[in-house]
Write a structure and sequence with these properties.
The chain is an all-alpha fold. The chain has ten helices and no strands. The protein has helices at residues 5-39, 48-71, 75-89, 92-98, 105-113, 116-130, 134-161, 171-182, 194-245, 249-252. Helix 5 (105-113) runs antiparallel to helix 7 (134-161) and helix 7 packs antiparallel against helix 9. The longest helix is centred in the C-terminal third of the chain and has 52 residues, at 194-245. It is flat. Mean pLDDT is 79; it is low at 1-6 and 8-12.
């Protein structure tokens, strides 16, 4: 990272940088809240205080969406490429609670993660800004999203499986299952619930898509290093050749 975050955001990204930083921080707050309550086995989706907090955060996400929409030069293109962020910013849980719609605890738990999609996008953008080149930015963004997906999948798997699956005794078991699945190696923990089985397939598919990107990135780094080495030796050889050919007869005596 060549620049301080504060200096870079304010000088080069302006209002967009400030908004994405705020979205990222709010999303991290949601992640921490979900994680703490999950580890303590607290049904946070029934807490009115948490619902209010998420409502305010979702309203800020909606504000960000409409502000960027009005600031964009091509509004139709912005809608086509960013409409998903409008959908994930809607406070579904508050709407469901207001109209007294009954869903299972599993569905309510899933709805907690919906606003985090917006935070994940902001994280990828911020990481890309702070990377020294485009390739590194894309790679770090992919890796960050991969680890975030594994983490959220392990949380969901733990909540759904630890009561019905004898192989999931604590969160460490769920995290082990997630990492083994995403590496496509497989785990000795077999999903029992339907959602757990779906997550198993999703993580395996994600791993098959993401790990080739890592291989390509490492290969490109090695090739670039070899190319730079060859160019350096060629330049050194050229300088020696020029030095020899430009020597004067007096200097040789």
């Amino acid at each position: 990272m060549k620049m301080a975050v504060y200096d870079f955001v304010l000088r080069k990204k302006g209002i967009y940088g400030i908004l994405h930083i705020m979205i990222l921080l709010l999303s991290l707050f949601l992640v921490i809240s979900i994680s703490v309550d999950t580890f303590k086995n607290i049904p946070f989706y029934t807490q009115s205080s948490y619902k209010k907090i998420q409502l305010y955060i979702c309203l800020f996400f909606l504000f960000d969406f409409f502000l960027e929409f009005f600031l964009s030069k091509d509004k139709m293109r912005y809608l086509r490429t960013h409409f998903i962020f409008f959908l994930v910013a809607i406070p579904y849980q508050n709407i469901i609670s207001y109209y007294h719609i009954d869903f299972s605890d599993e569905v309510n738990y899933f709805l907690r993660f919906v606003p985090l999609v917006r935070g994940g996008y902001a994280l990828a953008i911020v990481v890309g800004w702070l990377s020294y080149n485009r390739a590194s930015g894309l790679f770090i963004s992919y890796v960050t999203m991969l680890f975030a997906t594994v983490y959220f999948a392990s949380l969901i798997f733990f909540v759904l499986e630890h009561k019905v699956n004898s192989g999931v005794n604590n969160y460490g078991d769920a995290l082990w299952w997630a990492f083994m699945d995403v590496t496509t190696v497989g785990s000795n923990i077999i999903a029992v619930t339907t959602t757990g089985r779906i997550l198993s397939v999703v993580l395996a598919a994600l791993g098959m898509m993401m790990f080739p990107i890592f291989t390509v990135y490492v290969t490109s780094i090695v090739q670039k290093a070899n190319k730079d080495k060859v160019e350096y030796y060629n330049s050194q050889s050229a300088e020696k050749t020029v030095s020899v050919t430009t020597k004067s007869p007096d200097s040789e005596k």
